[in-house]
Amino acid sequence: MHLKPVDKVENISPENFKTNYYDTKTPIIITGLSKKWPAYTKWNWDYFIDTVGLQEVAVYNNIKSDSYTPINTADAYMKFGDYLKKVKAGPLDLRIFLFNIFQHAPEVTGDFSWPDELMTGFVKKYPMLFVGGQGSVTHMHFDIDMSHILHTQFLGRKRVLLFPHEEQYKLYRKPWEVLSLANYANYSESFDYTSFPAVKLARGYEVILEHGDTLFMPAGYWHHMEYIDAGFAMSLRAMQSDLGGKMTGLWKLFGMRGIDTLMKKTAPQWWYDRKKKQLLKHANEEMKKI
């Protein structure tokens, strides 16, 4: 992997952001954005336990999905407060993602503001919370709706790998899915380049997010996240401004995912083998370009 750091600024003008990052689909970290929010100092484990601790949530472990597993299938359910107490207690390979805590506690939306000056198209009904215990992993994927993301980290540190969408074949994207066949867990210490040699060619970014960092992830960006410490983050999503980007997101969300789920139920092994053959073909083609 050819990795470089993500640009980091305290603040940025809307014009600079649009010209150099939004329009070019280049990630950036803005450290000062969240410092304007009450959430920056107000949000912690106990606050969420008290606010919405009784809400039942889906939790997910570190095991990658296989040929029989539809995308986003929960591994267990528990009370949010009970989960957070486990997270506080020590290492835990369970995480929560796409949790709309604000639906259950609308008053929490007063703790932050939407940065409309940076971009338009925010889906304001669905700010999402992501929580992970120390050691939990979000495996390499891109967001299926192809939205732009402002991902703000609260508490703890999180290591993030980022790749432009165009690097998908070098990353061994599974056809009809948003996931990679390769396992990037603990990639900084070990990665199976023998089985996935094209990954050596992939060009992307590496960053460690800390409390208050807001990462702009352009639409379609691949990302892999590892919780160095227990922590949580909030994602604000914005649809792409052009019609083509919106239509691509809708197709992947309602067309591609539905077909993949159906095939996993009806012919899982055949479907898996077919997709693996195709992705290996794409990866080999990338290797021949050297």
Summarize the structure.
The protein contains 7 helices and 14 strands. It is of the alpha+beta class. The strands form 3 sheets. A 7-stranded mixed beta sheet has the order 2-3-12-9-14-7-6, with no helix packed on it.
* Strand runs, count: 14
- Please outline the major beta sheet: 7 strands, mixed
CATH topology heading: Jelly Rolls
Helix content: 25-40%
Topology record:
Blueprint: E1 2-4, E2 7-9, H1 14-22, E3 28-30, H2 39-42, H3 45-52, E4 56-59, E5 76-79, H4 80-89, E6 95-99, H5 101-104, E7 128-132, E8 137-141, E9 148-154, E10 158-163, E11 203-209, E12 214-217, E13 222-227, E14 231-238, H6 243-266, H7 268-288
Parallel strand pairs: 1-11, 2-3
Antiparallel strand pairs: 3-12, 4-5, 6-7, 7-14, 8-13, 9-12, 9-14, 10-11, 10-13
Question: How does this model look, in words?
Answer:
By secondary structure, the protein is α+β, with helices and mostly antiparallel strands. It has one domain: Cupin (Jelly Rolls, Sandwich). It has seven helices and 14 strands. Strands 2-3-12-9-14-7-6 form a seven-stranded mixed sheet, with no helix packed on it. A five-stranded mixed sheet has the order 1-11-10-13-8, with no helix packed on it. A two-stranded antiparallel ribbon has the order 4-5. β2 (7-9), α1 (14-22) and β3 (28-30) form a beta-alpha-beta unit. α3 (45-52) packs antiparallel against α4 (80-89) and α6 packs across α7. It is globular, with a radius of gyration of 19 Å. The two termini are 14 Å apart.
